[in-house]
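Q: What does the predicted 3D structure of Response regulator transcription factor look like?
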Amino acid sequence: MPVRTVLAEDELLLSAGLAELLARFGFAVCATVGDAAGLVAAVAEHRPGLVVTDVRMPPGFRDEGLRAAITLRADHPELAVVVLSQYVEPGLAARLLDSGSGRGVGYLLKERVADLGEFEAALRTVAAGGTVVDPEVVRRLLRRRRDPIGRLTPREREVLALVADGHSNTAIALRLHISDTVVGKHIGSVLAKLDLPPTDDVHRRVMAVLTYLRADQ
C-alpha cells in the first residue's frame, strides 16, 4: 500500500514539482500545504505515515516548518518526517533527530539532492523507520557540539560578552538601550542554550563566562 504523505512547501512551483515526483515514486500525496499551521492541520485530518517539510515557512519564514515537525513527532512518535530544505538549524535539527528514539526521521538539503533514485531511497528508508541525514547536516551538528557559543544569537553573544567584562544587568541594559527585564531574558536564554544546570544563578553566570572565554581562545 502506498505511504500516505503530507507535503509542506510554500514555493508553489517547487511544491507542485515535489508532489508530482512523490506520486511518481509511488507515495500517496494526500495533502500539500504552504505553512506550518496547515501542516499540523493536514496531519490531524489525513493521518499520514510520512511528512516532507521545508524549514522556513510563513508567516515568519524562520523555522516554522521544522518546529511544526518537532511538535508533530512529539504528538505522533510513529510519524515519519523528512525535512527537505536549503537551511540547517542545528539546535532544532538535533531535537528532531532525537525524537522518536531517532527512528523514522531524515534531514536532507535541497541543493545536495543530486540523484532521484537516492532521494526516493532516502524517503523509503525514513518511511520504514530508518534515519537519513545529509553529511553536511551531521558536520554542522558536530561543530555545534564543539562550539556551544555558536548556539547563541548575536544579541545573546553581545550580552554574554558584557557579562564577561563584569557588567551588571543594569549596566548592560544601559549600554544596549534595553530594559533590565530584557537583559534577564537574554541571560536566561544563554544559560539554557549552554546547558548549564539550574543551580545558583551566580555560579551559572560564572560558568557561562568561562564557556565564553574558552571559546574565544
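A (community wiki): The C-alpha cells above were generated from the sequence. The mean pLDDT is 89. The CA atoms of residues 37 and 68 lie 8 Å apart.
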